[in-house]
């Protein structure tokens, strides 16, 4: 934990120094279980490798496509 703070005080301190969207990310990261974050990272890595193989930008496909 940064600066010896934990929980809400740490989140508030991080939010004060971050843009609003970044503050949401800080809070979501704190609430998300570690294995979920690890799975998202692995999924993103696989997605970027797939897009590179097909020479597509990673944002070429939308969820509705």
How would you describe what is shown here?
- This protein is mainly α and 65 residues long.
- The protein has one domain (2-54).
- Helices cover 66% and strands 0% of the residues.
- The protein has helices spanning 7-16, 20-31, 34-54.
- α1 packs antiparallel against α2 (20-31).
- The longest helix is centred in the last third of the chain and has 21 residues, at 34-54.
- It starts with 6 loop residues before the first helix and ends in an 11-residue tail after the last helix.
- The mean pLDDT is 76.
The domain count comes to: 1
Q: Mind describing the biggest β-sheet? A: none
Stretches where pLDDT is under 50 for at least 5 consecutive residues are: none
Share of helix, binned: 55-70%
- Count every helix, treating DSSP H or I runs of 4 or more residues as helices: 3
Summarize the SSE layout with pairings.
Blueprint: H1 7-16, H2 20-31, H3 34-54
